[in-house]
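Chain A, query sequence.
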Amino acid sequence: MSKRFQGSLRGLALPAGLFVIFLVAVNLSAQTNPCDLNGDGVVNIADVLDAVQMFRGESQCTADILSAGVCSWQVVRRVESATLTGVCVTGNPSPPTLSVSSLSPTLIESGQSSVGTVTLSGGSAGAGGVLVALTSSSPAAGVPPSVLIPEGSASATFPITGNEVAGSSSVIVTASYSGVWSTAGLTVNPAQLSLSSLSVSPGSFASGQTATGIIELSGPAPSGGASVSLAGTNNAISFPPAVTVTQGSDSANFTVTANMVTAATEVQLTASYSGGNSSVTLTIDPASVTLSWVASTSPDIAGYNVFRGTVSGGPYTQLNTALVPGTSYVDSTVLPGSTYFYVTTAVNTTDIQSAYSNQAEAAVP
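Chain A, predicted structure.
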């Protein structure tokens, strides 16, 4: 019974009718040929068909695969490019040139952004575009994993984000495509902390009352905190000379107290930090007590007098200089933190005054 072997066979006759069979290996050097696209060990029409498939139906390049001596890196580069982009070009072109043509700006702060541009030289991207891989040398700047140069275009832009850094950081941005790469550099500095806003609520309050001020920074305060100075245009309010925003926080509260005024008074409060200012205008009203009472049922009432004392039961001092025609009165001469006692009398048209009314007590904050 005979057997058939692939490859070349050589046999030597041995005693007892035995044979030793040697297999001579087939030359496999063709398997490493870059144009052996299907890996069958030879470069033939099958590779041309694979190339057509890779070139997405285009066949004008496949002659290079079968031509003697042209299965070079140029052809392989073109095959790789065609696999990624669907582009097929004739001849043996020069390798593609890619550049990160610009980063703008090249100096940013944490939280800011820059724009990078990648450019292909010698023509525009073919069908499907060109996908360019992107990397950053440092976490100080973030880039997307890739950017697509659209079909028919020679360039595309991509965003670069400055991340939080403790000190000035240099970053190299690298773009790569089909074995070609290009780099460009930028610097990321820590964000310059600034004063964002100053607010006080309420914006109008009376002598002796308080309001809450809020300072906001553009970011977290550094180690040791951030000291924000305060100043006012007059003495209508009291406030601390400086407020510290604690480390890691971006805001701080403080108290504003309205001082004694005899008439409504405006005051501007200004916060200052790192060369920046923010101001708010406040209105301080005099401290006051509003009184009201039930009208007298006596006939011919001409008006009322209002009396005030600092001790319960009197003595009392008249506040009004002319009869009060209605049944309410605002005492704007009180002092914050004081307690007062009020009575009223009714006066008829013959100028006869009644006895004191019941006493009312009012505590001024």
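The two ends are 121 Å apart (CA to CA). The first strand starts at residue 8 and ends at 13.
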